[in-house]
Design goal:
By secondary structure, this protein is α/β, with parallel strands linked by helices. It folds into two domains: 194 residues, Rossmann fold (3-Layer(aba) Sandwich); 113 residues, Rossmann fold (3-Layer(aba) Sandwich), CATH 3.40.50.40. It has ten helices and 16 strands. Helix 4 links the parallel strand 5 and strand 6.
Length: 333
């Protein structure tokens, strides 16, 4: 039987980083060292050859927190091109974990395809004792090659667990089980015998899969995230407006509550035409569209974390959607 074709785009991150020694599990990024080009896949080539016909597609390798808008636009263009050209049945993207969930969500919104797109990485560098990257990569290829994973949107595979791009977030700074989907739970797992087990299907953001496939990611407006805390005033909000923000995501306390001075600044911004999305800094739970929020003309983020709310708002603004449509997008997310 012919094996499925899986394209692997390598973008760097911990998965191909090299530390000072095998017990360097924290400061390894400071060495600036990486595996040689091609070495990441070569290390697991015999295992990958039993799963799929794998082709590596190079990309600039960098830390996740170093990604710029230009890098993201280039990555999305590359993914769109490879899939549109019929070059792969599924795709894996290796990525640094610090912003892995953001890239996965952007891809979910911006790439229209039924083919599995799987984002993976590692919490331990390639040089580490018990590095997790090699098995994460193999598991990601298994998921990308599995017919049962088609049509689910972008997936994240880490530590033998399959997450949906909408709900997954990095929930720990160092542990190998760092990724979680606090509200929805994982979609499945890759068991020790290599079997890909789908236990649930995404219930949220299904209508948004590829909804912004025609958006030019090089023409996105500025949208800033402003986190609330005790005693916060409106200085950062005013600064965002002065810097040209067309949207602001307010990461409020509790179920979406900025301080009184922040509310005043957000109302000034809203009056100036800036779209305000109210989210929470808590990490899980909904921000409901309560009457006061609607009366101010703001958008409720529901349970989208602030940085994912920012991505959706940027795409909605680029698509020139009006406020009612943006509200509907967030309700569907």
């Amino acid at each position: 039987m012919t094996l499925p074709r899986v394209a692997v785009i390598t973008t760097g991150g911990t998965i191909d980083s090299l530390g000072a020694d095998r017990l360097d599990l924290a400061a390894y990024l400071e060495t600036g060292r990486r595996l040689e080009p091609g070495a990441l896949l070569a290390a697991v080539a015999p295992e990958l050859a039993t799963i799929a016909r794998v082709t590596e597609i190079p990309f600039p390798r960098l830390a996740a927190h170093a990604f710029t808008d230009a890098h993201l636009a280039n990555l999305v263009d590359l993914v769109r091109s490879v899939l549109a050209g019929g070059e792969a049945d599924g795709m894996v993207i290796t990525h640094g974990t610090n912003t892995l969930d953001e890239t996965a969500w952007l891809l979910h919104l911006a790439v229209a395809t039924d083919a599995p797109i799987v984002v993976t990485g590692a919490m331990r560098p390639a040089s580490a004792l018990s590095a997790d990257g090699p098995l994460n990569l193999v598991d990601a290829v298994r998921v990308a090659a599995a017919p049962t994973m088609r049509g689910l949107g972008v997936l994240v595979v880490m530590d033998g667990t399959v997450h949906g791009a909408r709900d997954v977030t990095k929930a720990n700074t160092l542990r190998v089980d760092a990724f979680a989907s606090p509200m929805a739970g994982p979609l499945g797992r890759v068991d020790g015998d290599g079997r890909v087990v789908l236990t649930s299907r995404p219930a949220r953001a299904t209508s948004l899969r590829g909804a912004y496939g025609g958006v030019d990611l090089r023409a996105l407006s500025r949208v800033d995230v402003v986190a609330s805390y005790q005693g916060a005033d409106g200085a950062l909000i005013d600064a965002a407006v002065a810097a040209g923000a067309r949207g602001i995501v307010s990461a409020g306390t509790g179920a979406g509550h900025p301080t009184p001075l922040e509310v005043e600044a957000l109302e000034r911004a809203s009056s100036a035409g800036v779209v305000i999305v109210q989210s929470s800094r808590v990490g899980s739970g909904r921000v409901p569209p309560v009457p006061a929020l609607l009366a101010r003309g703001w958008v409720a983020a529901d349970d989208l974390v602030p940085w994912k709310a920012r991505i959706l708002l940027r795409l909605a603004l680029a698509a020139v959607e009006d406020l009612d449509t943006i509200r509907a997008r967030f309700a569907a997310a």
